[in-house]
Write a structure and sequence with these properties.
The protein is an alpha/beta fold and 209 residues long. It has 7 helices and 7 strands. The protein has one domain: Rossmann fold. It is globular and about 50 Å long.
Length: 209
């Protein structure tokens, strides 16, 4: 993998050599496991640091200024949760991460990364709708579902003053309009650093219409 991608990431997020080493280890595990369980699109393996690592890491700037319980829904290959957990390991080691993933093969992968990298994270191997409320300070999801569906999940799993951070693609404006028919919520839109046509949606104050 290009050392230029690593250097760009290190310069952007001002992380230590140890954090870069953890990300390299994570990258190696992704490459090793991907042919068997399709964690990420094969075409993105050569741009892993930009397409997946940077895309995930940009959420860290919205972290609350306190110890946080992060909950990631539909974690798949670990984005954004494992990248955020790696950053937290350096900057806020008391932060806790809970990953929710129902695919047992992906659960095995996530648990392997968490163990090998020594991250403060656990995996719940269950469907989202079957788990009890998780009281998240920050709820994340990437490429999981429509905004309306995500707000349904958030209404259950966010703490009273929690925020949701959702990475969305080019159709996010329509998703916002559609969700307003079902949900009241406060939303801030931030242009994605890795996809100028997409957005990070920072959401709170969720209640059903």
């Amino acid at each position: 993998m290009s050392t230029d991608q690593r250097k760009t990431f290190q310069d952007t997020y001002n992380v230590s050599r140890e954090t870069i080493d953890r990300l390299v280890q994570y990258e190696s595990l992704l490459v090793k496991w991907n042919p068997a369980i399709n964690l990420v699109s094969k075409s993105t393996l050569m741009v892993m640091w930009q397409r997946h690592f940077h895309d995930s890491a940009q959420l860290y700037q919205y972290r609350k200024n306190k110890k946080c319980h992060w909950v990631d829904l539909g974690s798949g290959g670990g984005f954004p949760a494992l990248v955020l957990s790696i950053l937290a390991h350096e900057f806020n080691p008391d932060d806790k991460f809970t990953l929710v993933e129902s695919d047992v093969r992906k659960v095995a992968f996530l648990q392997t990364v968490i163990r090998d990298l020594g991250l403060n994270a656990t995996v719940i191997a269950e469907r989202i709708e079957k788990i009890p409320p998780l009281s998240a300070d920050i709820l994340t999801a990437r490429a999981l579902s429509s905004l309306a569906q995500l707000l349904d999940y958030a209404s259950i799993h966010l703490s009273t003053d929690g925020i949701a951070l959702f990475l969305k693609g080019e159709r996010y404006k329509k998703e916002i309009d559609d969700a307003i028919e079902v949900w009241n919520y406060e939303v801030e839109e931030f242009t994605s650093e890795t996809n100028p046509a997409g957005a990070i949606l920072k959401i709170g104050g969720i209640s059903r219409v």
